[in-house]
Design brief:
362 residues, single chain, eight-stranded parallel sheet, four-stranded antiparallel sheet, Enolase-like, domain 1, globular, 2 domains, 17 strands, TIM Barrel, alpha/beta
Length: 362
């Protein structure tokens, strides 16, 4: 049951449409795939997206971190020695949270395979199915309305609308989307740090004036502007969620105690994987602060690990795991079933993958 090898390759999956936020535009998932193989032939999978604008990582840095610093520490270790393996993983180097997350989820995949349980049951087993939103990229209003209607036709009942490029147009974007999709569809907004506190409060006042029934607003101001987040959160009638402001349990405690958000967004690529995400979840549980589980621009491989965590824990009340819904094709056989908005966990051990279809050697 010891680790024999850690292999890296590239995972390339085209998107249905370009993914656009206030920070970047991307037309395909192009990530690093991690495969950890044991002496007895089991394989655990992980994935790391190079999201330099958020985590500071590139494909080259992810590859270097894993091959040069992380892998040598883990070869020969038992997959059941999770605490030791996590200590070695996180002690190998500072930062590099996506590289660590990819290795972490492969370790959890193997650990739960050895236990003979699907990962969500090994982590708590709260529920078998979860429902995700779908992201609507920031574009001209007509295109965003069209994308929103297509999402509803596909069965999505919750839309996460990207904003933040032009705060004056942002209000009109939401008005037109709400008019098009009707009142039954939930709308979440994500500014991706694109507003100042003053702009955020003005937009929120306008949203309230037009009775647009917004479920929550994600990261309205810059991640480092804690006072700005406090100002917006305390003056807004719409719940405010912290995303880029919260990478780890320490950040979570600071934000919660400062009253700088009503909801926390957990992403494995920010925390460095499941092990550290569980610490953040414990903080949220102590303070009774609801969480969202989110993802970067990732494929089914790593999103499945996040889905298992979401299915395991009651405190995760919002799900933003739409990466597979944005992709043109399924890059893997097995694992959870992503049927548009509905995600159903596999009952086979681990993450449940049997074959990766979209990998290519580096």
């Amino acid at each position: 049951m010891s680790i024999k090898s850690i292999q890296l390759s590239e995972l390339v999956v085209p998107l249905r449409t370009p993914f656009k936020t206030s920070l970047r535009t991307v037309d395909s998932v192009h990530d690093i795939l991690v495969e950890i193989t044991t002496e007895d032939g089991l394989v655990g999978y992980g994935e790391a997206p190079p999201t330099a604008v958020i985590t500071g990582e590139t494909r080259a840095s992810i590859t270097g971190a894993i091959e040069e610093l992380i892998a040598p520490k883990l070869i020969g270790k038992s997959v059941l020695s999770m605490e030791e393996n996590q200590s070695l993983l996180h002690g190998a180097l500072l930062g590099n949270t996506s590289a660590k997350a990819a290795v972490d989820m492969a370790l959890y995949d193997l650990w739960s395979q050895k236990l003979g349980l699907p990962l969500y049951k090994a982590l708590g087993g709260h529920r078998k199915t979860i429902e995700t939103d779908l992201t609507i990229s920031v574009n001209p209003i007509e295109e965003m309305v069209k994308d929103s209607l297509e999402a509803v036709d596909r069965g999505f009942k919750v839309l996460k609308v990207k904003l933040g490029l032009d705060h004056k147009l942002d209000i009109q974007r939401v008005i037109e989307i709400r008019k098009a999709v009707g009142k039954e569809i939930k709308i979440r907004l994500d500014a991706n740090q694109g507003w100042t506190p003053k702009e955020a409060l003005a937009i929120i006042a306008s949203l309230e004036k037009h009775d647009l029934d917004i479920e929550l607003i994600e990261q309205p101001v810059h991640y480092s502007d804690l006072q700005g987040m406090i100002q917006v959160t305390t003056q807004s009638s719409i719940p405010i969620m912290a995303d880029e402001s919260v990478f780890n349990a320490r950040n979570a405690m600071e934000v919660i105690e400062a009253g700088a958000a009503d909801i926390l967004n957990i992403k494995l690529m920010k925390t460095g994987g499941i092990h550290e995400a569980l610490k953040l979840i414990s903080i949220a549980e102590v303070y009774d602060v609801p969480c969202m589980i989110g993802c970067m621009l990732e494929s089914k491989i790593s999103v499945s690990a996040a889905a298992h965590l979401a299915a395991a824990k009651d405190i995760i009340q919002y799900v933003d795991l739409d990466g597979p819904g944005l992709c043109k094709l399924d890059p893997a056989e097995g694992g959870p079933d992503f049927n548009e908005a509905l995600i159903t966990m596999n009952e086979t051990p681990g993450l449940g993958f049997t074959k990766i279809l979209a990998k290519k050697e580096k």
